[in-house]
Amino acid sequence: MIGGARPGSDRDDHTVPIARVRPARGRRGWRTGARIAVALASTAVFAFSGYLWSTFGRLQGGMATSDVTSGAGPDGAVDILLVGLDGRTDAQGNALPEEMLRELRTGDSGSSLTDTLILLHIPEDRSRAVAYSLPRDSYVSIPDGHGQHKINSAYGRGKATARAELQSEGVSDPAELERRSNDAGRKLLVRTVEQLTGVNVDHYAEVNLLGFYQLTQAIGGVEVCLNNAVDDPFSGARFPAGHQVISGGDALAFVRQRHGLPRGDLDRVQRQQAFMAGLARSMLSTGTLTNPAKLNRMFDSVQQSVVLDEGLDVLAFAGQLQGLAGGNITFDTIPVEDPEYDTPHDGMAVKVNPRKVQLMIQRVNEGLPAEQPRPDSLNTSVVDVLNGTGITGLASRVQDELNSEGIPVGNVGNGPETATSHVLFTPGNDEAARFVAEHLGGLPVEPDPALSGGRIRVVLGDDYDGPGAQHFAAAPRLQLDGLVRQSPEQPSGGTITADGIPCVN
């Protein structure tokens, strides 16, 4: 499994020092750490596959497909689940040979963990795209009675259940078992994501370790820059300081390293962003697009490592996206309540609130800011907080949360017991009420004629799990055109731009 404490190989795959060094530029930004590098290439592999197929149709018949989704919904928008699979097989389900696993610097071939999940939304007019990163350790409810677990286990749980059922029905052919159980795992993963995000997944695209490895080699490597030399036996990352071109196993090690970095996961995510910018730059460069040998190698890597749902017509879809410029592709991370949540059975996980996630995605999909702008009417409003639960001190903690956001709080106390949380407001003061409700996890709002003077009343019920119950934290937005982060909060590394090669830790 990528990211585990397993020493890497001593090989130095395609590492070419470059004799120019630029200092990183300081800035601020909170990031949720990603777990694996595979799906840094997922979006790029899928988007570029469309370009390749529209130019060279020979891939169309050689792709692996899976019966996963029901196709596009009636709204005209397209929502695609991009999956980076920590599996040690190719797209056809064949186990990778031992020598390839050694090159990948990984272990056995039995994993079915989905180590990176990206939900890509493209509106009906195809004018822009938003890619939502779903942390692999998000603690969610998995359908079909599987209970609460990390989202990256949904695929494997669905696969294992289906495999056991198929075997009990007398299915014994290994290839059929693998194919049908994989389809079941994918379907359960799709349903889990739909339940978390409130989005109907129209299409599915999956890329594995082999795809990431081969793609970086096919394009001749990706240029990166390090502030300091590193030598990490856990990830196999051994690099000098400065600019260099990396590919294959070194590329995997570069984006996997966490140990020995000043800020751990924060530095690792900064590396991944820098690498993703370099990958996109290399794939779309003239030297790649006009080089038949590179294109053929890219064709081969896509065919061997990408699985698409059967209903996705890539040629038609690529034609619809011809006007989509890189600057109109935005990367977001879903809101996180607690990045170090101690689960009953699954160790440390990332606690997320589906209601908050769905509200954020709905706003961004509609072209609105991820967070509602502060309305002027809030300055003349007063917010009362009533605790309708048996949890002592909950109203006071919510008051502290509201005060930290500059929201004026009036009366705080206990109220009648209630099962559901909601926000009441003076008729006509709905804009301020919705702002307060959104900051408390997207609570429902309703007018109350008994209130006056711009007063807002927050009623906390037994279902309340917003700020004050846990701590929310959301990763700021990433823009592909320059890869500029917004909503800065905590210290971070240098700004990532597609126009230059930033030096990172």
What does this entry look like structurally?
InterPro entries: LytR/CpsA/Psr_C (IPR027381), LytR/CpsA/Psr_CW_biosynth (IPR050922), LytR_CpsA_psr (IPR004474). Helices cover 31% and strands 23% of the residues. The chain is an alpha/beta fold and 505 residues long. The protein has 2 domains: 381 residues, 3-Layer(aba) Sandwich (Aminopeptidase), CATH 3.40.630.190; 85 residues, Alpha-Beta Plaits, CATH 3.30.70. Strands 3-14-9-4-5-6-15-25-26 form a 9-stranded mixed β-sheet, sandwiched between helices. The chain is globular and about 70 Å long. The two termini are 23 Å apart. The N terminus is likely disordered.
Q: Secondary structure elements and their pairing?
A:
Elements: E1 16-18, E2 27-28, H1 42-55, E3 64-66, E4 78-85, H2 98-104, E5 114-122, E6 129-134, E7 138-142, E8 147-150, H3 154-168, H4 174-197, E9 203-208, H5 209-218, E10 222-226, E11 230-232, E12 237-239, E13 242-246, H6 248-256, H7 265-283, H8 286-289, H9 292-305, E14 306-309, H10 314-320, E15 329-333, E16 335-336, E17 338-342, E18 348-351, H11 354-365, E19 382-387, H12 394-404, E20 409-414, E21 422-425, H13 430-439, E22 445-447, E23 455-460, E24 473-474, E25 478-479, E26 484-485, E27 491-492, E28 503-504
Parallel strand pairs: 3-14, 4-9, 6-15, 7-18, 10-28, 19-20, 19-23, 21-22
Antiparallel strand pairs: 1-13, 2-27, 4-5, 5-6, 7-8, 9-14, 10-13, 11-12, 15-25, 16-24, 17-18, 21-23, 25-26
Helix pairs in contact: 1-10, 3-4, 5-6, 5-9, 6-7
